Every structure is written in structure tokens, then in C-alpha cells.
Design the sequence.
């Protein structure tokens, strides 16, 4: 029989140990928490933002809500003709957007998918001001002068009768407020009068309490010339009759899209699923494979150059090894830009290397080597920059290989080459793995050096990403390309963590 | 000199020398670009190669004019000022947060240690262009893009992995009985930290800090995206200079920066030895 005391005693001891462990855990987590939150805000969330932007596509449906809503139920094929009503919605959407110049942004967004849309939107945004809305404003305000004040419109918007007018007015007001352009002195835009007239005309037949408004306005409105939106839009640009344009708008209406990823793989969205882009527009598969090819080459060059040096260092007496190690660490510590500028200076057509080659007569003055602004330049400079990242892990693994193994192999009759191949080399493989993965991870995402010495043929996918973010402003595509690169790097990082352990990274 | 054994064959001996020559060439490849840029920076002309005067070691071939340009040109001076305004603050942030977290991570019972570590190290692994792009997007949303604080935060995040790695490395050899002894003699946890733990991990903290400093000081991609024209740093100006018309002033700056890294490297080497001595780890 177990006594009651001993049970209580054991339990309370157990509880005490549990408690103290819990406190220890909490204390550890408490120490980590500030940094963790810091990294989360300054680093992890930004990366998440980039991932989000690679699929996000709210702009089109946000700026053209009526048009995209109408297009939802349309079956667009080659024989399809845009109906009149569609142009009415397009007019309202564009009129609101043009107030704050948003139509140009939608235009450039859709231009990534179909060239020409940008100028189509730009042109139309200008021409809708000449569609005759000012006649409507004059006629309506002649009857009711209060219509020029924003307060009257506020009252109108509170009523429930003219639904389309209310929604349009509110949408217009929201855009102005976003742009800090709205105050009590703001004048209602011309197109709002067209919208109001349209609303009154369509509800005019039903008896309503708003009789004054209707009594006064209905006669004027019926005298005003009807605006033929379709004709006017087609006059501005015939492209509006093209089913392709509307097809693109319809395809990019949803708030999320896989279009950027399709683009990254040289595909594009078609009405019947993804289709390959025409040959002259294919670009990214080439750049991705070039990035892979160059990263593999750089990793191989680093391994080829790093292995002998690491072997040499690992087999030197310690005091000499430390001395020679400085020759590896100094480049490692030297500013990246300094090393890149050194290579830029050395590899130039009139640079030191070509000068020396000419001076010793290896090449003639006329056939100076093209060493820069191509793949050769990138591979030479990046191999130099990443070489220490290969040597250091190799060295730390080779240091632990005891020389007696090789001696034993030799004493058993192995030639030096066999002893190296069968005994030493297998033991150094962990170092090769660690160094190669590290160099490969670092090189695949490199930006600075290829940008400066790579010219056009020696650039990486990261240069393309930078181009889309800072020059072409196609952020979604840049983000999609970035997300693909990130996935590759994280997969390798995971392998590295499994193989080497991230705690075992050594710096110098 | 080589210590050959009687049983070494001729080809063994030959290989010994060939191997050394190969290694010598690789060391030459490593050091050559850095060494050659230094004399070139004293070039009297605007060339990027050795002029005949320089090769004949005539005094007219050399000049300090590129250094003079660096120290008098307002663009470079502003850039240097910005660099020295950003890097130390970013370093302080990295070191402060990083040291605390490293101490937390080295405790014996940390749940999800591996995952946390992987996340904290990730700024070092994720390609800089992606960090820069993400930060550009997110910092624009919250109004930090183009601000001093934004750049400092970004650089601090990039420096943190180095602090974590160096400080956890010093903590692995840390003898837990020292803190217990201190506690048994009546010191509170804070006193124990400052009197016992801190002096022992200080070398790791300082070398981590130096890594973080050099990371920020040498960083260009993130600052290009998160920074603004008024926050141009030295690397930014160098990058611009290299991309457009490359001016020999860059060689002078490069030489100054190499001197700086020699100083930093020596400091770190001294600290590493001191740390090993303090912790009783033999240098082997």
C-alpha cells in the first residue's frame, strides 16, 4: 500500500518542478519576445505584404465597380458587341475616377496585360468631359439654383428615391475625401447632373413626394439632347468596340488574380485558361534559368577554388593557419561595393587585367577581352565575393578530420590519391554541402554585383524584380517574381537548417 | 620548409609544391583586387589603370587629389554624415534586442527553439532585394518609407542575425555553475547578469555589434528602396557613381573603407582570442 503522504509529497514535488520549468520557459520567452516582435514588424510582415501584392488585384474592380459588375454576366467572344448600357456604366466609373486621376492607374494596370489600354483610358478620361454634361448642369441649375451647392446634394443623397444618384454621389465624394479635395465649397461635378437627370427621367412616371424637383426638372430634361455614350466613346477611340479590351477588363475584375504568376512563367490569362505568351514576349523562364545556371556556375567555381585553400589551411600548424586565414577574412570583411568597384576597375576594357595581358603579349591591343558587362564579369566578381563563404565552412569541417585516418590508409597501401578520394574526401562532404548551399543561397538572390558588372546578359532575376518595383512600377509582377525566388531560397534554407543546423553558422 | 618523410616519393614532393603554388594563386585572386585598388587611388590622372609615370615610381604620377575630392565634395560629405547617423543607431537596436534574445534562446527549455531561431536568422538568408521590396511596400503603407526611422529599423533587422549568431556562440561555452555560484552568494538576477554573465559574453556582443555596424554601413539595396534622396548613404553614392560615370574618387573611398575593415577585423580577432581565453577554451 502506498501511503497518502507519499502521494501528496510526490505530487507536490512534481508540481514544483513543473512550476519552476514553466517559469524558466516564460523567462526565456520573455527575453526573446521583444526581438521577435521587432523582427515581425520590421521584417516578416513586409515580406508578407510582398506575397500579398503578388495576388492582389483590387484596383480594377475598385475603380470600375459598375462596369465590372455589369461585365460579370456577359459572355464575351469574338462576335460580342458591347451594349449601350455598358458604356453608361463606364462613363460614370470613368467620370468619378478622372476626378482624382485614378483612371490612368487602372489604365497602366491593364496595360501590363494588353498593350494600348493605358492610352485608351488616358484619352477617354480626357474626352468624357466633352460629352455634353455641362449642358445638363446649365439646364438643371437654371431651374433650381440650389443644385450648385453641395448641401443640396447632401440632402438628395439622404433621400432614398434616386438610388443611382445617391450611390454615384457618395462614391464621388469618397474619392475626393481620400484625395483631401472635399470641402463644403466643393462644386458638384457636371456628370452628376447627367446621373440625376437620368434618375429623374426613369422614375418620373411614378407619383412621388419629390414633386417640386420633378415638376421643375422633368420638362427641361426631356428637352435636353440625349447623350449617346457608345457613339461618343467609339468616336474617342475605336478600340472600345474591340471585344479583347472588354475581355481583359473582365478577366482582371476579381480582387485576386493568378495573372502575375502566370506572367512570371511566360503565360498569360486567356478566356479559356492560361495560354503561352507569343515567343517575343517570353522572358522570365529565360531569366530564371539564367539565374540558376549562373548560381550553379558560381557555386562550382567557389568549390573548386575554396576546397584547396581550405585543405591547405586545415593542414597548417595553427599559428600559420590563423595568419593565412586573415587573407580569407580580409576580403570577407571588405565592403561589398569596394570589391565590386575593384572588379569594375580591373575588368574594364582599359583596365589593369587587359593592360597586363597586352603588355606581356598574350593578346594584341586590338583584341582586348570583353570581361565586363556580360556573364563572365558577373561570374568572376561574384565568385570572388562569395569565396570566403565557401572556405570558412569547409575549413571548420576539415579542421576536425584527424590526419591519422589518411596516414592509416596510406600505411595500408593506398596511393595518396586513393587515400584522399576514399578517406579524406568523404569526411569533408558535410563542409562541401554547407558551403555550397550557403554560396548558392547567397548568389541566387544577388542584386548589387550583377547590376554593376552584369550588363544586360549577366543579370539575375533580382535585377528584374528591382526594375519592376522602381522603374516599370508593375509591383504585382515584381512581387510575384520575388515570391518565386523567396520560395526557392526558403526551401534551400530549410535544407541547410536540416543538414548543417542554423546554430552552427560560423562568422569568421 | 617542407618536412618530407623518407617514404615520400618524388611525385609526392612535386605535388606538395604544385599544391602550394595553386593555393598561392587562389590567395592572390582573393587579395589582388583589394591590394591593387589602393595604389590606383593615388593616381594623379583620372585613369583606372597604372600610368607609365606610376610604374616608373615618379612622384608626378601620384597625388592625393581623389582624397581631396572626397573630403571637400558636399555630396560625399553628406553621404558620410548620413552613414554615420544611421549605422550606430541601427547597431544599438540590433545589439540590444539581439543580446536579450540570444540569452533567452540559450536557456535550457525554450519551446519552438528551432523555429524561433530560423525566423530570427532569416533576414540574413532572404535575398536583400526581397527584404527591400517588402519593406518598401509595407513601410509606405505605415508612413515609414523615406524616413530616417524607417531606414534605421530596416538596418537593425538586417543586423540582428549576426548579433544572435555571435552571442549564442559565446553562450554555448558558458558555465552555468558561475551564475548559480553568484546566486548562492546572494546576488540577484540583475546583479548576476551585469557582474558575471555580461563580462563573459561581452566579446561576443561587441563582435556581433561590429558585424551589425558593417552590415548597416555597407548596405545599399534596402536604403535605395526605403530611403530617400536626403538619406543617401555612402554606399548609395558609391552605387550611383559606379552605375553612371565612374569617378576615381570611388577608389579613394574604397581605400579608406578597406583601412576601416582592417581595423574592424583586427578588433574582432583580438576579441575572439580574449573571449576564448576568458572562457578557458584553448584556441584549437
Sequence:
Amino acid at each position: 500500500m502506498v501511503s497518502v503522504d507519499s502521494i501528496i509529497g510526490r505530487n507536490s514535488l512534481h508540481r514544483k518542478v513543473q512550476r519552476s520549468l514553466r517559469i524558466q520557459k516564460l523567462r526565456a520567452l520573455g527575453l526573446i519576445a521583444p526581438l521577435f516582435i521587432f523582427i515581425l514588424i520590421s521584417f516578416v510582415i513586409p515580406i508578407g505584404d510582398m506575397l500579398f501584392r503578388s495576388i492582389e488585384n483590387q484596383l480594377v474592380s475598385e475603380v470600375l465597380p459598375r462596369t465590372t459588375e455589369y461585365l460579370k454576366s456577359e459572355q464575351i467572344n469574338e462576335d460580342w458587341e458591347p451594349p449601350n448600357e455598358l458604356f453608361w456604366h463606364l462613363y460614370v466609373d470613368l467620370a468619378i475616377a478622372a476626378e482624382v486621376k485614378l483612371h490612368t492607374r487602372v489604365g497602366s494596370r491593364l496595360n501590363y496585360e494588353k498593350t494600348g489600354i493605358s492610352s485608351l483610358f488616358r484619352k477617354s478620361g480626357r474626352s468624357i468631359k466633352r460629352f455634353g454634361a455641362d449642358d445638363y448642369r446649365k439646364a438643371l441649375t437654371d431651374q433650381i439654383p440650389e443644385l450648385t451647392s453641395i448641401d443640396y446634394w447632401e440632402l438628395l443623397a439622404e433621400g432614398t428615391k434616386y438610388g443611382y444618384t445617391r450611390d454615384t454621389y457618395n462614391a464621388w465624394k469618397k474619392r475626393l475625401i481620400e484625395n483631401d479635395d472635399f470641402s463644403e465649397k466643393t462644386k458638384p461635378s457636371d456628370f452628376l447632373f447627367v446621373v440625376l437627370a437620368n434618375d429623374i427621367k426613369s422614375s418620373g412616371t411614378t407619383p412621388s413626394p419629390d414633386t417640386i424637383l420633378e415638376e421643375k426638372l422633368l420638362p427641361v430634361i426631356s428637352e435636353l439632347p440625349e447623350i449617346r455614350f457608345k457613339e461618343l466613346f467609339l468616336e474617342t477611340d475605336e478600340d472600345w468596340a474591340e471585344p479583347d479590351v472588354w475581355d481583359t477588363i473582365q478577366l482582371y475584375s476579381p480582387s485576386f488574380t493568378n495573372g502575375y504568376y502566370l506572367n512570371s512563367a511566360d503565360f498569360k490569362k486567356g478566356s479559356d485558361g492560361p495560354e503561352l505568351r507569343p515567343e517575343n514576349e517570353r522572358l522570365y523562364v529565360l531569366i530564371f534559368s539564367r539565374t540558376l545556371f549562373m548560381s550553379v556556375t558560381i557555386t562550382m567555381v567557389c568549390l573548386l577554388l575554396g576546397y584547396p585553400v581550405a585543405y591547405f589551411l586545415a593542414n597548417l600548424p595553427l599559428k600559420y593557419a590563423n595568419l593565412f586565414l586573415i587573407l580569407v577574412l580580409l576580403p570577407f570583411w571588405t565592403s561589398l561595393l569596394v570589391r565590386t568597384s575593384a572588379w569594375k576597375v580591373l575588368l574594364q576594357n582599359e583596365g589593369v587585367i587587359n593592360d597586363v595581358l597586352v603588355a606581356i603579349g598574350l593578346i594584341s591591343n586590338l583584341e582586348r577581352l570583353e570581361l565586363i558587362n556580360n556573364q563572365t564579369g558577373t561570374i568572376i566578381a561574384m565568385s570572388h565575393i562569395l569565396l570566403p563563404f565557401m572556405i570558412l565552412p569547409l575549413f571548420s569541417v576539415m579542421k576536425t578530420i584527424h590526419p591519422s585516418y589518411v596516414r592509416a590508409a596510406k600505411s595500408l597501401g593506398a596511393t595518396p590519391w586513393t587515400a584522399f578520394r576514399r578517406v579524406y574526401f568523404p569526411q569533408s562532404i558535410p563542409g562541401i554541402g554547407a558551403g555550397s548551399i550557403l554560396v548558392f543561397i547567397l548568389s541566387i538572390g544577388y542584386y548589387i554585383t550583377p547590376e554593376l558588372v552584369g550588363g544586360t546578359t549577366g543579370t539575375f532575376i533580382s535585377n528584374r524584380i528591382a526594375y519592376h518595383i522602381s522603374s516599370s512600377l508593375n509591383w504585382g509582377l515584381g512581387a510575384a517574381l520575388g515570391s518565386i525566388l523567396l520560395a526557392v531560397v526558403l526551401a534551400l534554407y530549410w535544407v541547410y537548417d536540416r543538414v548543417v543546423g542554423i546554430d552552427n553558422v560560423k562568422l569568421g | 620548409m617542407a618536412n618530407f618523410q623518407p617514404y615520400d616519393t618524388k611525385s609526392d614532393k612535386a605535388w606538395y609544391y604544385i599544391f602550394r603554388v595553386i593555393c598561392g594563386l587562389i590567395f592572390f585572386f582573393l587579395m589582388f583586387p583589394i591590394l591593387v585598388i589602393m595604389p590606383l587611388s593615388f593616381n594623379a590622372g583620372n585613369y583606372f589603370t597604372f600610368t607609365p609615370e606610376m610604374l616608373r615610381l615618379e612622384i608626378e604620377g601620384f597625388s592625393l587629389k581623389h582624397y581631396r575630392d572626397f573630403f571637400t565634395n558636399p555630396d560625399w560629405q553628406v553621404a558620410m554624415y548620413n552613414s554615420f547617423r544611421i549605422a550606430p543607431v541601427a547597431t544599438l537596436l540590433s545589439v540590444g534586442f539581439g543580446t536579450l534574445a540570444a540569452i533567452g534562446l540559450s536557456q535550457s527549455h525554450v519551446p519552438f527553439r528551432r523555429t524561433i531561431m530560423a525566423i530570427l536568422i532569416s533576414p540574413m538568408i532572404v535575398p536583400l532585394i526581397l527584404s527591400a521590396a517588402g519593406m518598401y511596400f509595407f513601410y509606405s503603407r505605415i508612413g515609414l518609407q523615406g524616413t530616417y526611422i524607417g531606414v534605421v529599423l530596416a538596418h537593425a533587422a538586417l543586423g540582428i542575425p549576426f548579433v544572435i549568431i555571435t552571442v549564442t556562440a559565446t553562450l554555448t561555452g558558458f558555465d552555468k555553475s558561475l551564475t548559480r555560484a553568484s546566486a548562492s552568494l546572494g546576488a540577484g538576477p540583475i546583479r548576476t547578469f551585469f557582474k558575471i554573465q555580461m563580462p563573459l559574453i561581452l566579446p561576443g556582443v561587441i563582435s556581433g555589434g561590429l558585424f551589425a555596424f558593417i552590415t548597416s554601413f555597407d548596405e545599399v539595396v534596402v536604403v535605395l528602396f526605403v530611403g530617400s534622396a536626403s538619406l543617401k548613404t555612402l554606399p548609395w553614392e558609391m552605387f550611383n557613381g559606379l552605375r553612371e560615370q565612374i569617378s576615381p574618387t570611388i577608389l579613394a573611398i574604397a581605400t579608406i573603407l578597406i583601412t576601416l575593415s582592417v581595423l574592424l577585423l583586427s578588433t574582432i580577432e583580438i576579441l575572439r582570442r580574449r573571449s576564448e581565453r576568458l572562457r578557458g577554451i584553448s584556441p584549437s
Notes: Chain A is about 70% helix and 0% strand.
